[in-house]
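LOG
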Amino acid sequence: QVQLVESGGGSVQAGGSLRLSCAASRDTYSFTCMGWFRQFPGKEREEVARLYLAGISTYYADSVKDRFTFARENAKNTVYLQMNSLKPEDTAMYYCTAHPYFGGCPKNPWDFTYRGQGTQVTVSS
């Protein structure tokens, strides 16, 4: 069973930065895609970013583009979400997800096969 373990969440003031980490229990090359999504207090979910590992291309939601960066450290089987210029509306539970290397990458990251336990990000004004 694959495990994804997130860390790095916390509380920060608006304009600040946080870096979320997601450590996978196996080589990230075994996934076709990895992603981050967030769930707001009202339970709405939003895709934040995804990484297509074969082509090493990334997608960002418009709401985070130019502020968030999805990075990968192969040697540690870890991906990161660097979040800069944080806003109160970024407050949410953030989840790391991954999908195995067969078939296509699902449309929504919450439908990927593997998901971490989530890490809370709170941004105060």
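LOG (cont.) second protein
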Amino acid sequence: QGQLEESGGDSVQVGGSLRLSCVTSVYQSAVCMAWFRQAPGKEREAVAVIDADGTGSYGESVKGRFTISREFAKNTEYLQMDSLKVEDTGIYYCAVINQRWCFGLRPASDFTDWGQGTQVTVST
């Protein structure tokens, strides 16, 4: 199993931006990576996924505001979050499936490896 470590979470005001990073220390080949988030009292929600070729897919609530990307040489994926809203608040997790293609957003149960999460808080 791989090891994943997120960073970049912070407290920001509405309309602000953050960039989250997720480094994998084990996966040396390009695999399907994803960002999920979980707000208090809610289920874990898929935010975005990225295929081995860099193609991203997004949840409806973040389309046009968030951008997922990856830097293969550093085994790192990123989530650029712009125009943040209060409802974006939650713990953000990166996750991996050990296959090249995500085939779009997938449920959390499909992902085999998870990071510990990083807190994002958006306030007015």
